[in-house]
Automatic annotation (TrEMBL):
Gene3D superfamilies: Bordetella uptake gene, domain 1, Periplasmic binding protein-like II. Keywords: Signal. The keyword Electron transport does not apply. InterPro entries: BUG, Bug_dom1. SUPFAM superfamilies: Periplasmic binding protein-like II. It comes from the Bacteria. Residues 1-25 form the signal peptide. Belongs to the UPF0065 (bug) family. Pfam families: TctC. This is Hypothetical conserved protein.
Amino acid sequence: MFRRSVSIFILPLILLAGCSLPVQSGSVNDQGEWVPDRSIEIIAPAAAGGGWDTTARMLARTIDEEQLADESFGVVNKPGGGGAVAWSYIHKRNDPHNIFVSSPPLHFVYLNGQSPFGYEDFTPIANLIADYGAFAVREDAKWDTLDELFADMREDPESVTVVGVSSPGSMDHIQFMMFADKAGVDIKKIRYVSDQDGGGMTSVLNGSVDVISTGVMDAVDQARAGKMKILGITAPERLEGDEFLETLPTAKEQGIDAEFIVWRGMFGPPDMTDEQLAYYEQAFQKVSESEAFAEVRDMYGWDEQFMNSEEFQVFLDEQYVELEKILIDLGFIDE
């Protein structure tokens, strides 16, 4: 296991987030079922409008409108520290009425030493949806496949510049490195540019950089318009439900044995009982199976990928090991 040091500028925010109301735990009825004693808070670890916030609000809305639980579900935004403030809040309260939505940054922020809390410090409840990454170039770029791109990068890794929104060591960066590594590229020599102002797509279109590592839905509009080519996506299989999306090749079908799932799932505090876990697991399975949430998935281009708590735990363990290895190889963390 590696050693991490938590960034000191994050700590004051984390400590402040721990100050809260006394914990209430609910009760267990005669049927052995947990009964909340107040409404449920889904914590979105970011400001309104982002992926975590949208997922949380769509889940809460589906539960309430479809009457899938006895108690109401509301959303509370707790931004800060890339998610670290919200995770500290949940961990400190240890209240089963407070749960949160998360995705791969739960791994990245912890691994990069920006939070003392990782996925193992919470209770995985269920995963509900999957999104995927995409690697795209300008329409007139010389590469038509990932194999052609990586062939050039194997000869000269520094000849290609990759851009993403994420900071170095985070999602857009690492998803590209995972696939380049599997393709035999020397990932330590790859030039990656972080454009957190969202100008990465423009940089590709004007020729300032060569490749963008992003989400599928972020690249699709430019590809539909004929301005960009999506060389490959990180999904295990081709996407369905849209004629254009079905044309996008996976990296796997191009001979690159890798996949990267941008999951979005639910977590609870560390000391949840079996009854509390069962309450949420069942509620979110109903959400996943509902027609109402199927419409939400279609609206946002999300894939259905329900995993119960046990399945989700296994998945998280496996993804964590993969990400840790890449970050060690790149020198972001010590072995």
